[in-house]
Amino acid sequence: MLVKSIANVPAEAVTMPGASAVNMQMLLGPADNCPNFAMRKFSVAPGGHTPRHQHNYEHEVLVLRGSGTAFSTAGEKRLTPGDVVYVPANELHQFSNTGNEPFEFICLVPAHVHRPGPAAAVTPAATAAGCS
């Protein structure tokens, strides 16, 4: 069993094109010998957002703090603490902070996304959806 404090996990800026004011902490993942899942914590500053993108793996989200929206081609959903989100593989999505404090959430993905070597395909799909 591995136990560690979230306070000791460094936050790194998300540099994927289309991201704005987003940091990520890798809470648990391949470096911790987790074979199946990676648990990440995202913090999106007021006015910031994750890239509008899609990829060939699912992920699950738990909102911890703040307020925001989850975009998909079906429309936007408002998110507040305690909400959970399932994003199926290949669904265009984006998370945005709509409040005045950090928008924080836990995001689970397959561990292979963070292993060295070819990662699962990630497509910045703004043009595919007619969005700029």
Strand order of the largest sheet: 1-2-3-10-5-8
How many strands in all? 11
Secondary-structure element sequence?
A: EEEEEEEEEEE
> What is the overall number of helices?
0
The mean pLDDT is 90
User: What structural class do the secondary elements suggest?
Assistant: mainly beta
Number of domains: 1
Shape: globular
Strand content: over 45%
- Write out the CATH superfamily name: Jelly Rolls
Rg, rounded, reads: 14 Å
Termini separation comes to 45 Å
CATH architectural arrangement = Sandwich
Fraction of residues in helix = under 10%
Would you write up a description of this structure?
This protein has no helices and eleven strands. By secondary structure, the chain is mainly β. It has a single domain (20-123), classed as Jelly Rolls (Sandwich). The chain has a six-stranded antiparallel β-sheet with strand order 1-2-3-10-5-8, with no helix packed on it. It has a three-stranded antiparallel β-sheet with strand order 7-6-9, with no helix packed on it. A two-stranded antiparallel ribbon has the order 4-11. The N and C termini lie far apart (45 Å). Residues 125-132 have low confidence and may be disordered.
What's a quick, concise take on this entry?
It contains no helices and 11 strands. With 132 residues, the protein is an all-beta fold. A 6-stranded antiparallel beta sheet has the order 1-2-3-10-5-8, with no helix packed on it.
